[in-house]
Amino acid sequence: MRCYDEMRHHDDAVRPHYARFERWLVKQGNEAIARKRAEADLLFRRVGITFAVNGDLSGTERLIPFDLIPRIIPRGEWQTLEAGLRQRVQALNLFIHDVYHDRNIVRAGIVPAEQVYTNAQYRPEMQGVNVPLGVYAHIAGVDVVRAGDEGEFYVLEDNLRVPSGVSYMLENRKMMMRLFPELFVQNRIAPVAHYPDLLLDTLRSVAPEGVDDPVVVVLTPGMYNSAYFEHTFLAQQMGVELVEGKDLFVDDNYVFMRTTQGPKRVDVIYRRVDDDFLDPLAFRNDSALGVPGLLTAYRAGRVALANAMGTGIADDKSIYPYVPEMIEFYLGEKPILNNVPTFQCRKPDDLAYTLAHLPELVVKEVHGAGGYGMLVGPASTKAEIESFRERLIARPAGYIAQPTLALSACPTFVEAGIAPRHIDLRPFVLSGKTVTMVAGGLTRVALQEGSLVVNSSQGGGTKDTWMVD
User: What's the pLDDT at 370?
Assistant: First the structure.
């Protein structure tokens, strides 16, 4: 299966936006690159840029492998990508508002009612609740891939609940500037370092009405969460407090933070805690991560949450197939970015096709994440396929299937030297009074030869992402 090469045409000629970098790269030896990679690993470990793997009972913190060869996107391609991402996130926010208010898209028969109102991510507690500016997904991390001979962009997933990875985007850039300052003199690379400022502006813009100088906090589940480094990093970069549920309390429908100077009112919570754990009085009563009474304060409009409760209804693989129709329904526009063709296994015909073509398809749990609960048919054994077939037959509504795309490849420094490896891209879209984003994102790379799974929990690494003139 031939894939799009980010750096070279099929005749091996270097693409224009990689030409300057390629000339620099050929002057470097493998030994020099290896030394720089070892230096990067050491620096990342000193800073504490690690993650915990779900299900790893040892609790070992790991480095996400960092590749020194950047993924480069020319301005023209980035402008198309940015326009498509803005359009998509705008439609998703309108969809979430509609789901919890007038239900027009359901009445129109475009999205089936059962797909929404029996969905595990639907929150009836949010029905009729008005959120500031009508924005639910303030931070969206949209996974984009390129495939086909022409490298067409496709949206693979919409991550709207608590999307992670932006700290690695920022730290990767800092590392590249430290190791290779000459590259940033030679190339006009769009900056990404201002992302925390954009994030803080976005969070402040959705503060409750009448609050002129909002207090913003980052709510973390705690140090044992796999993304805890990112929580601490973003709080530090924004200059706001990092809090856990036990640091907050609700009084008279206002949220307060415990401080050494006494209680301090909190206006905006950037929460990195899933809905189910946010308020033990409303959701899971065994949760020690949330704040009792938070839902009541939220419904009263006394505090803003980013992202909003109930946003997960649009962050679900069973809703994903309808996003192109959402764009046309709410915006009256044709989608700029395409979805990957998707079979919904709850439909008998789609299920029959999927079962007949399992060795060729990628099958995913509709609520799955992190590369777990999925089958990559071409990379699986017969035994794995048959085991997955039984799970699929037992619970077809819990899965979707997609063709196995030949993800684009980017030169990557591996043990054998420089070789192509498959990649994706997660740009981060911020929605408040305006929709903003930095020109870049987190490029994830599948380090194993032939692998299409880029998730860090499955052995993937990351790269710096350059948008260049």
Answer: 56
For the segment 438-463, the average pLDDT, to the nearest whole number, is: 86
Q: Domain locations in the chain? A: 16-340+405-468
- Mapping DSSP onto H, E and C, the string for the chain reads CCCCECCECCCCCECHHHHHHHHHHHCCCHHHHHHHHHHHHHHHHHHCCEEECCCCCCCCEEECCEEEEEEEEEHHHHHHHHHHHHHHHHHHHHHHHHHCCCCHHHHCCCCCHHHHHCCCCCCHHHCCCCCHHHCCCCEEEEEEEEECCCCEEEEEEEECCCCCCHHHHHHHHHHHHHHCHHHHHHCCECCCCCHHHHHHHHHHHCCCCCCCCCCEEEECCCCCCCCHHHHHHHHHHHCCEEECHHHEEEECCEEEECCCCCCEEECEEEECCCHHHCCCCCCCCCCCCCCCCHHHHHHCCCCEEECCCCHHHHCCCCCHHHHHHHHHHHHCCCCCCEECCCEECCCHHHHHHHHHCHHHEEEEECCCCCCCCEEEHHHCCHHHHHHHHHHHHHCHHHEEEEECCCCCEEEEEECCEEEEEEEEEECEEEECCCEECCCCCEEEECCCCCCCCCCHHHCCEEEEEEEEC
List, for residues 352-400, the tens digit of each pLDDT value. Answer: 999 999 999 999 988 766 556 789 888 889 999 999 999 999 999 999 9
